[in-house]
């Protein structure tokens, strides 16, 4: 049986995952989420947009809407799920960064906030209109 990560060419070996630092692991799971969303028909506009307000993991488009995607990974649910880690404070930072992005890029289209939550080797859980 092939794991979800292996199917998308993102490794999957326990040894491989342990060699990565947290920033590399974050990029690995953002890559996994990106490949998953591209397979669902979304288009990538940008990634890892940083400003003083915060960071936007993935900036995508779907059917005329700007889709801001927060990617969250948890090794297990011991301290809460990946989805639960998107707190009100985190949401506020994402919204503030999005406001800055739409002003600086002169965006005038509907906006949607999605979360891709990944726990262990399970397939991504894609929550549209998460907040």
Plain-language structure description:
Mean pLDDT is about 85; it is low at about 15. The chain has one domain (about 5-125): Trna Endonuclease, Chain: A, domain 1, CATH 3.40.1350. With about 130 residues, the chain is α+β, with helices and mostly antiparallel strands. The chain has a 5-stranded mixed sheet. It starts with a helix and ends with a strand. The chain is about 35% helix and about 30% strand. The relative contact order is 0.17. The longest helix is centred in the first third of the chain and has 18 residues, at about 20-40. It is built from 4 helices and 5 strands.
Structure, briefly:
By secondary structure, the protein is α+β, with helices and mostly antiparallel strands. The chain has 4 helices and 5 strands.
- The CATH class designation is Alpha Beta
The domain tally reads 1
Strand order of the largest sheet: 1-2-3-4-5
Number of strand elements = 5
Uncertain runs = 13-17
Sequence of secondary-structure elements = HHHEEEHEE
Features:
single chain, 131 residues, alpha+beta, Trna Endonuclease, Chain: A, domain 1, five-stranded mixed beta sheet, 4 helices, 5 strands, 31% strand, globular
Strands, helices and their partners?
Layout: H1 4-7, H2 14-19, H3 22-39, E1 43-51, E2 54-62, E3 65-74, H4 88-104, E4 111-119, E5 125-127
């Amino acid at each position: 049986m092939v794991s979800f990560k292996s199917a998308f060419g993102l490794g999957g070996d326990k040894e491989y995952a342990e060699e990565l630092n947290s920033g590399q692991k974050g990029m690995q799971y953002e890559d996994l989420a990106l490949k998953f969303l591209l397979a669902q028909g979304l288009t990538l506009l940008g990634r890892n947009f940083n400003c003083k307000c915060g960071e936007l993991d993935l900036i995508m488009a779907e059917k005329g809407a700007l889709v801001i995607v927060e990617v969250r990974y948890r090794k297990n649910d011991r301290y809460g799920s990946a989805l639960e880690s998107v707190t009100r404070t985190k949401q506020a930072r994402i919204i503030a960064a999005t406001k800055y992005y739409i002003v600086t890029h002169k965006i005038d289209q509907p906006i949607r906030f999605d979360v891709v939550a990944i726990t262990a080797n399970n397939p991504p859980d894609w929550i549209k209109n998460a907040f």
